Amino acid sequence: MTGLSPEERKQLARLGAHTKWAMTEDRTAATQPARDGLLRKFEDQVDPDRVLSPEERAKRAENAKKAHYQRMALASAKARRARKQGS
């Protein structure tokens, strides 16, 4: 695929994604490994040595996940404000 422009690469990627999802019966099952990996990331962040009980680790991982998404929301709001002021 050498010689493709960035726009052509984007179009091919979109085509592939649409084709994949058109052929996927169980979307939840198809994305479960990604959700499991993200949860594991937050568990590793709060309890890398696995010394906490599973219940406590899950609570803390949930808080770490919420903090992550809150940081993303804050950054998004700042970017929108900056774009609005720049217009």
Walk me through this protein's architecture.
This protein is mainly α and 87 residues long. It has one domain (6-86). 80% of the residues lie in helices and 0% in strands. It is built from three helices and no strands. It has helices at residues 6-22, 27-46, 54-86. Helix 2 packs across helix 3. The chain is flat and about 50 Å long. The chain starts with 5 loop residues before the first helix and ends with a helix. The mean pLDDT is 96.
Strand and helix layout:
Blueprint: H1 6-22, H2 27-46, H3 54-86
Helix pairs in contact: 2-3
Mean pLDDT: 96
Shape summary: flat
Radius of gyration: 19 Å
Please give the largest β-sheet.
Answer: none
Order of helices and strands: HHH
Tell me the distance between the termini. Answer: 37 Å
Weakly predicted, low-confidence segments: none
Structural class computed from helices and strand pairing: mainly alpha
Question: What portion of residues is helical?
Answer: over 70%
Q: Count the strands?
A: 0
Defining traits:
87 residues, mainly alpha, 3 helices
Brief rundown of the structure:
The chain is mainly alpha-helical. The protein contains 3 helices and no strands.
